[in-house]
Structure formats: structure tokens, C-alpha cells
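FW: tagging you since you asked about this chain on Friday. Here's the raw sequence from the shared folder, copied in full. Didn't touch anything.
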Amino acid sequence: MKTQYVNVIKAGQRVDDLFVLSRKNMSQKKDGNNYLTLVLGDKTGSIKGVLWDDVDRLAARVSTGDFVRARGTISEYRGELQFVIKDLNACPPKDIDPSDFMPATRHDVAKMHEQLVQLTASMKNLHLKKLFDAFWNDQGFVESFTTAPAAKKMHHAFIGGLLEHTLSMAVLADKIAGHYRDVDRDLLIAGVILHDIGKVREFAYQTSIDYSDEGRLISHIVIAIQMVEDKIARLDNFPAETAMLIKHMIVSHHGEREFGSPEPPKTIEAVLLHFIDEMDSKVNAIRDYVAADTSDENWTGYHRLLGRHFYKGNKA
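HL: got it, structure written out here
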């Protein structure tokens, strides 16, 4: 069992514990001998490591992405903690509790999924109900959809993150659809639930969250279109226009071509989907960023991606 997490490790401490090996690079010292630099992590963060002795033999034992047991001491180098490793071994995944290494949603996955199922069951559009029946009856899809993260870093970057993000958006969509006239509530909810389903294949998330080869080469937008087309092809007399409108919502949900959408939103439902997505992802990202800032300052550090500091309130 894992007992020492990265976020509580301190300089001078002896460590003998389990980690995920996320990076492994062989280099050479000035005398020509090899040394190994590594990055080890768990659900609380990551730490840089270095292996000076018996390098070739120990390096051959492990590969990037492995669960490993590392033994050594924690030092400080250039203002950062460094794990000076003396011994290193790969561990079988079957002996590991994944929750020690991957952050996960705090909410009940089964209940969140059931809430989505109930939303789709309330649709009046029978064609859309049959489409979602096809997805919910696909056990492989449901398992992936309820496990996948919604992002690598920016928002909902944890196991179950895609489900949590999608449900939050769907609840918002259901409320907003009744606020504006002439909004197709069923179509909006359908687009919300389907817009990011490609992320079940865009990300690899067995030991850490990263992009899969398919995700890097094709992207979740194209993957989602393929998944929707595959399900629609198995349904009788699914309306071509409805299929086109759903696919438009998927390809336009990033809002602008420069942000990865082949087309900008061109229907009311697509516009609403884009802004609901923006709102939910940004609020989650900002909330997590503020919570992670444990300083006594009134303001967070500078958020590079969002281009600003965030006010935490007067702590006096």
C-alpha cells in the first residue's frame, strides 16, 4: 500500500514507496558515466528524481508509464525537492490501487450517470431517445464515458471528469432551454452530452492523463463525429437534418476556428452549447486554481492560460 504522497514529502526524508514513472531520461556525467533523471508522481503531484549508481541495470527494470517502487532520500536542488534514488523496481498493475495515483471525481459516478440517463429519457424527440438508448446500452462506451477525464490539465482533469463536466452542462442546458424561446431543448441536451464523447479515446488515463496517439492525430471532435455516425447508422430512419445539426454542434463547440472548431456555431443550440461549455470549464478551472493557492495573499499567482491573477478575498 502507498503511504507517502508527493505533496507531504520533505527534504531530508527517507522514502520507500510506490509511484507512477512519467518520465525517464538517460544522460551522461562529465566523466562519461550514465545517470538517470526521472519524474515520479501520484494523485497529489510529481517530483523529479535522479539515479546516480547502478544506472544501466536499474534503468532496464522500468519503463515510462510503469508503476514503480522507489527507495531513496529527498534532497533539495536549485530550490526544488529532488528524489535521490538508490533502488527502483517495476510493480504489477494488479497489485496497485489506481486511486492512489489518479485524482478522481468526488461525486457518485453511478448517480451522475443515472441523472444523465433520466434527462435523455425525458426527451420528447423519439429519434434522439433511440440514439441515446444506443449509447447507454453500449457497456463499453458507458464504462469509458464514466471513467474518462475531460482534459489533461485545464479543467475536470481527473477520473470521472468527463461525466462530471457533461452532467453539469446538461443541467445548465435544461434550465437555459426554458429561458429562451424557440430553443430545441432535446437537441441542446443531446449536443451537450455528445460534444465531448470523443475524449473517451482522445486521452489515455491508465496511470496518468495524457493524449493517446489517436487523440493527437485526430482530436476528440473528429472521434466524436465518428462515434455518433456509427450509432446513427444502426438506427432506422434517423432524420438526416437532426444528424447534421448534432454534428454541427460537435464541430463548433470550441466557438472559433482558431480554438480548434472547423466551423463557428451557426444555430441557437450550437451557440448555447459553446457558452455553456465555456462557463462550466472556466468556473471549474478557476475554482480549482484558487483552492490550490494556499498562500496568505489576497490574490493568486498569475494564471498563464487565463492571463490574470484571481482575487481570493481579504484574509486579514
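FW: Residues 265 and 271 are 5 Å apart (CA to CA).
HL: agreed, and The mean pLDDT is 92.
FW: great, closing this out.
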